[in-house]
Design the sequence.
């Protein structure tokens, strides 16, 4: 199977939820939820309303800068959409990855724009103590290694650069200010805040409340934000009992 036919064979699907952050502002930031499920894709009927893909969000700042937040299976549908819209023109985006658990990276091999040489992607993630320097680069290479995937990493022809960030870091991309903070999750997880001229978004998946240091990180990151995207994997009852210590939160803690 050629690379092209492989990607054509991946069917379109899944609807996405769109949010305009400040509808009254002329310069708007737009947020699209391409995947919202934790741990594993969930194609069952009772998840159809918000879709069954794992985490992937698209944020477009008012100046047109494009961000991808996490690379779960929702990334595949975003890639199909972008490829269609670009119609051969180059795509450029900044990809912020929170951590390396499967549900946040498993869309990478299926994102068509990574396999087109006219595209350019800037990746941001932390150095995992399990993977060492270039952690995210190593993750990409491992995912495409034989015999796990039919397309080799050498076919990933889009320009790619990788920047290591850590909790407490602040940097700027275009007109958007980014802040990273450590969350409480097994093997580490970063939360990101993106302050655009059209509003602020905090992306804080995968966090278990409790330890004072991490709770403070999250409260500071989320302070005054327009949109907080937060982990609500468990019910308050589960979080208080059998799921305590699993690294996740509940809707109640989010509120
Ligand atoms: Zn997760
Ligand atoms: Zn996780």
Sequence:
């Amino acid at each position: 199977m050629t690379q092209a036919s492989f990607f054509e064979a991946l069917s379109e699907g899944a609807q996405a939820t769109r949010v305009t952050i400040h509808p009254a502002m002329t310069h708007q930031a737009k947020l699209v939820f391409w995947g919202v499920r934790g741990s594993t894709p969930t194609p069952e009927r009772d998840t159809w309303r918000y879709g069954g893909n794992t985490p992937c969000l698209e944020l477009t700042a008012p100046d047109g800068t494009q961000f991808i937040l996490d690379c779960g299976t929702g990334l595949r549908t975003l890639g199909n959409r972008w490829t269609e819209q670009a119609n051969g023109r180059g795509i450029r985006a900044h990809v912020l990855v929170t951590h390396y658990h499967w549900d946040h990276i498993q869309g990478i091999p299926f994102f068509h724009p990574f396999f087109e040489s006219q595209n350019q992607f800037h990746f941001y993630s932390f150095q995992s103590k399990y993977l060492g320097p270039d952690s995210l680069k190593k993750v990409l290479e491992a995912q495409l290694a034989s015999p796990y995937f039919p397309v080799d990493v050498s076919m990933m022809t889009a320009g790619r650069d990788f920047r290591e960030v850590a909790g407490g870091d602040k940097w700027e991309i275009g007109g958007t200010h980014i802040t990273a903070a450590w969350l409480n999750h097994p093997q580490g997880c970063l939360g990101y805040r993106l302050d655009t001229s059209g509003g602020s978004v905090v992306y804080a998946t995968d966090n278990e409340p409790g330890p004072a240091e991490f709770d403070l990180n999250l409260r500071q990151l989320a302070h005054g934000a327009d949109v907080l995207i937060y982990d609500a994997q468990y019910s308050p009852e589960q979080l208080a009992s059998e799921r305590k210590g699993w690294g996740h939160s509940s809707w109640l803690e989010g509120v």
